[in-house]
Design goal:
This protein is α+β, with helices and mostly antiparallel strands and 147 residues long. The protein has 2 domains: 32 residues; 97 residues. It is built from 5 helices and 6 strands, in the order E-E-E-E-E-H-H-E-H-H-H. Strand 2 and strand 3 form a beta hairpin. It is elongated.
């Protein structure tokens, strides 16, 4: 880890915290040369992950698709950009914690819903309403009752 201020190569960790999942870590580091502190966010690397879609098609996981679906739930409001990055980090950590190398689109949607429901029920309901495979009113009512 290089110091962002002076580019020195030696830094030390003096504090760290894990998110609710195991895979997202926040660390406070200090440069050994200029002594300036800075924060790093170490997110999960999901480049190994394969997504199995309905109909048997498989494709590599892309963070962008997941992030875009949350943007949609926020009505593409750019003021949510930072919040969405944080939520995306939590969601990816939770996906990694499933311990699978192949997930289906439902696994990802369930993880997104769990995180959104905890963060903002209104955002969660909007996400739900955009889900194309969530057509049953009965299911929608059930989700509403659980809130
Ligand atoms: Zn430095």
């Amino acid at each position: 880890m290089e110091c962002p201020l002076c580019r020195h190569h030696k830094t030390e960790i003096y504090n760290s915290r894990q998110s609710s999942g195991r895979s997202y870590v926040w660390r406070r580091r200090r440069c050994k040369s200029c002594r300036k502190p800075f924060t790093t966010h170490e997110a999960a690397d999901l480049s190994f992950l394969t997504v199995a879609k309905r109909g048997g098609v498989q494709e590599p996981y892309t963070r962008l698709k997941m992030v875009l679906s949350i943007y949609q739930a926020c009505g593409y409001d750019e003021s949510y950009a930072e919040t969405i990055e944080t939520l995306a980090g939590t969601i990816e950590a939770n996906i990694l914690d499933l311990g699978k190398t192949t997930v289906n689109t439902g696994d990802i949607a369930d993880t997104i819903m769990t995180v959104l429901k905890r963060y903002d029920p209104a955002m969660f309901m909007r996400y739900l309403s955009y889900r194309s495979d969530f057509t049953s009113m009965q299911q929608l009512k059930q989700q509403l009752q659980e809130l």
